């Protein structure tokens, strides 16, 4: 117990020092702070409009204030959380809303821990005064980390779908190039064959590149950086090298699409193998339980007679 108390005290002292001494801000965090201040002003203007539902407005305003405060604290500390931001970008969720959810769930955990202690205490399993504090801290930490686990799980699934779509998209671009179109026209034409969320993200990135004067392969690279998709970043780099040679572009796109299909097939086979192993373990446990069910009565009779 003294070692555990000392560890918790040291962790609290470390977090206090980190909170009082802000980290070095990067240029990205400074630009994000300016954007957040601008968004805060827009949110304040929108809040002046008469709401349709008073209760929903109160909850939404509280969540928005908590999210803005938490995002400001993260910026002051220099915590960019790039991988987590990429996961949220894949899911098309707001960073401030995500932080507000984490903080509110942690607050709920602080209340839920003592509530569990009250239930346990009424059953007669505990009476120490320190137990409610530990339960509150443990539940607050667990509830604070739950949104991260959910976001990473959902983002991993959507990234798999996006990679599958990118592989088909590369085949369509190669076919458009074989039909005589240039690379910019082939990229945009291949992005207009569907209205799914993944191909729509690609199409929006290409349309924004036309407006801003950016090359389309650079826009694909920026999209891959934003969403954490390495295939898009590699595609951007390869297109920048061979953009002037149509034959090399077709060969590069075809080989890249084939590589992505082989990788996807390998992942599917690996997932199927894991599921087969889990089913085998479940069958073995079921057989062991059935054998215990058959042997136990006979063994009890032998022991009683002995």
Automatic annotation (TrEMBL):
* A Pfam family per the record: T2SSF
Q: Which membrane topology term applies here? A: Multi-pass membrane protein
Q: Which GO terms describe its cellular component?
A: plasma membrane
| Subcellular location field | Cell membrane
- Domain Type II secretion system protein GspF as annotated: residue spans: 170-296
Which InterPro entries does the record cross-reference, listed alphabetically? Answer: T2SS_GspF_dom
Stretches that traverse the bilayer: 6-23, 103-124, 130-149, 280-300
Name the domain of life this protein comes from: Bacteria
Q: What is its main location?
A: membrane
Keywords from UniProt, A to Z, are: Cell membrane, Membrane, Transmembrane, Transmembrane helix
Listed PANTHER family: INTEGRAL MEMBRANE PROTEIN-RELATED (PTHR35007), PILUS ASSEMBLY PROTEIN (PTHR35007:SF1)
Put simply, this protein is called Type II secretion system protein
Q: Which organism is it from?
A: Streptosporangium nondiastaticum
